[in-house]
């Protein structure tokens, strides 16, 4: 099969890009032909035969782009024009969409359907949801100003995005986000998607609030590649690894650390709250880590913590910890409970509850017998591997 993978970023930028690169690599290993379409960037790692991409756009820093923002967020004539060139050259059987809103816009959906009609060809249009963009204009189901999780925009009520200034704390940008969400819901643009892959049952439930998506969703938890073998000797520290930001629950975790001064904590990551991380006496900041070094750090921790305060869908960190035979304390929110077995491989606490989190950490630190049982149970945990995942993906690609 010929598969065109569409994602606005074609360089390493986050979990969705890891997903895009990994499924592309696996699909190619299975004998399929894969090309990519998205924005040009100096760090671009994948592409298409004719080298056709949209211009790189950064709405946060470039003054010219800020002026063009109101026009490009709703419909990108450039993305429509350029993806048609790639379609004409590659002539795919499947177009697999990932993150496309704002920079590429749903214009790419219309371009694919128009091309298929002109060619009188059936092209399967698949979308993997990495966030809640199709039902929430700021894609996080969270009000950034207050930090509260939020479902106010569900059911076609996108104007709440403007009311709460959910995009960059700007009423104008939030209005545009509301307009974008409302426009494509009124046009029923997403009816052109043949299937929507949801990385969690929680996300499926949320996306089905958009009536256009009902009957099109399929749940496929994220895959995990093989964890490299290493000597696993547990050491005396509790680990957090990930982004240092408010929605990840960092401030809640740091307060719990202060309340437990005799317990050593190790943090691995980076982000806007790094200075606050560095200010806590019993926290050692290792900075950003990846690959084998990160897995060794995870595997040697007594246990790890995932205190996220937004509706995570299928976080890799929760899977990685268990595969490294490290129990986890995690917030009971979004798709997280689908990945961690409470009372078997870890504990849950209510997101944002400092007292509960502190209690859970102290309990697991002091009860060595309980911790040993959780650690042993992690040894029998397994998740879908890339090949198994892509075999299911191909079945979706080929559905009648």
Which helices and strands appear, and what pairs or packs with what?
Elements: E1 2-6, H1 15-29, E2 33-37, H2 63-72, H3 77-90, E3 94-97, H4 107-119, E4 124-128, E5 142-143, E6 148-149, H5 159-163, H6 171-186, E7 195-198, H7 201-207, E8 217-219, E9 238-243, H8 250-259, E10 265-270, H9 274-278, E11 283-285, H10 291-300, E12 303-306, H11 316-323, E13 328-331, E14 346-349, H12 354-366, H13 368-378, H14 386-397
Parallel strand pairs: 1-2, 1-3, 3-4, 4-7, 7-8, 9-10, 9-12, 10-11, 12-13, 13-14
Antiparallel strand pairs: 5-6
Helix pairs in contact: 1-14, 3-4, 8-12
Give structural attributes:
14% strand, alpha/beta, 14 helices, six-stranded parallel sheet, Rossmann fold
What does this structure look like?
The protein is built from 14 helices and 14 strands. With 400 residues, it is α/β, with parallel strands linked by helices. The chain has two domains: 2-128 and 188-223 and 386-397, Glycogen Phosphorylase B (Rossmann fold), CATH 3.40.50; 238-378, Glycogen Phosphorylase B (Rossmann fold, 3-Layer(aba) Sandwich). The strands form three sheets. A six-stranded parallel β-sheet has the order 2-1-3-4-7-8, sandwiched between helices. Strands 11-10-9-12-13-14 form a six-stranded parallel β-sheet, sandwiched between helices. Strand 1, helix 1 (15-29) and strand 2 (33-37) form a beta-alpha-beta unit. Helix 1 packs across helix 14 (386-397) and helix 8 packs across helix 12. The chain starts with a strand and ends with a helix.
């Amino acid at each position: 099969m010929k598969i065109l993978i569409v994602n606005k970023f074609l360089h390493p930028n986050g979990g969705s890009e890891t997903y895009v690169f990994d499924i592309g690599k696996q699909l190619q290993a299975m004998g399929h032909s894969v090309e990519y379409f998205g924005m040009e960037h100096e760090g671009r790692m994948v592409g298409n035969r004719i080298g056709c991409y949209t211009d790189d756009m950064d709405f946060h820093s470039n003054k010219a782009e800020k002026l063009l923002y109101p026009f490009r967020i709703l419909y990108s004539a450039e993305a429509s024009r350029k993806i048609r060139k790639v379609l004409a050259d590659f002539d795919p059987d499947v177009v697999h969409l990932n993150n496309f809103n704002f920079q590429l816009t749903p214009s790419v959906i219309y371009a694919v359907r128009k091309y298929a009609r002109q060619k009188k060809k059936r092209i399967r249009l698949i979308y993997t949801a990495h966030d809640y963009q199709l039902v929430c204009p700021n894609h996080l189901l969270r009000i950034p100003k207050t930090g509260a999780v939020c479902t106010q925009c569900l059911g076609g009520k996108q104007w709440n995005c403007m009311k709460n200034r959910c995009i960059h704390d700007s009423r104008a940008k939030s209005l545009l986000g509301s307009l974008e969400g409302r426009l494509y819901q009124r046009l029923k643009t997403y009816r052109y998607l043949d299937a929507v892959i949801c990385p969690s049952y929680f996300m499926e439930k949320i996306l089905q609030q958009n009536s256009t998506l009902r009957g099109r969703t399929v749940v496929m938890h994220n895959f995990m590649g093989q964890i490299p073998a290493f000597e696993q000797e547990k050491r005396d520290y509790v680990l957090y690894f990930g982004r240092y930001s408010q929605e990840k629950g960092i401030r809640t975790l740091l307060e719990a650390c202060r309340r437990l001064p005799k317990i050593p904590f190790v943090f691995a990551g980076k982000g806007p709250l790094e200075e606050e991380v560095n200010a806590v006496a019993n926290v050692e900041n290792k900075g950003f880590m990846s690959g084998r070094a990160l897995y060794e750090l995870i595997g040697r921790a007594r246990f790890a913590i995932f205190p996220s305060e937004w509706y995570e869908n299928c976080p890799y960190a929760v899977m990685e910890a268990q595969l490294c035979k490290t129990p986890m304390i995690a917030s009971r929110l979004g798709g997280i409970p689908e990945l961690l077995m409470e009372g078997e491989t870890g504990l849950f606490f209510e997101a944002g509850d400092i007292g509960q989190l502190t209690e859970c950490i102290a309990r697991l630190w002091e009860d060595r017998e309980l911790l040993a049982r959780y650690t042993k149970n992690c040894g029998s945990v397994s998740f879908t591997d890339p090949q198994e995942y892509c075999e299911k993906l191909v079945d979706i690609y080929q559905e009648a």
